[in-house]
Design brief:
Nuclear Transport Factor 2, Chain: A, 3-stranded antiparallel β-sheet, single chain, alpha+beta, 3 strands, 96 residues, 20% helix
Length: 96
């Protein structure tokens, strides 16, 4: 959890509706002035050329927290790569 105050004692309470993890395979990020909205969903194929997304969770993140989220995701991805010896981060092309 991110905060600007280094000495804040934070208690995390897990709400009942958040206790069961939701597995998703797609997300959509939108934004407006001052906030980002992220929808997480499960996409399924309903016909040969048609799909459907069921949104299972939505969050709104203040713009000031976006950099912290991005850095946390990048750090978690690097830790994941080290732990499981599996590359998931894009690699810089040697020609660049």
């Amino acid at each position: 959890m991110s905060t600007d105050k280094a000495s804040v004692d934070v208690t995390i309470n897990e709400l009942e509706e958040a206790k069961e993890p939701q597995f998703v395979n797609t997300f959509k990020i939108g934004y407006g002035e001052g906030a980002f909205a992220i929808n997480f969903g499960r996409m399924t194929q309903v016909e040969e050329t048609k799909g459907q997304v069921d949104v299972v969770a939505k969050i709104v993140l203040p713009a000031e927290q976006m950099q912290s989220l991005i850095m946390s995701l990048i750090n978690a991805a690097f830790d994941y790569e080290k732990t499981f010896d599996k590359e998931i981060m894009p690699k810089k092309d040697k020609g660049q």
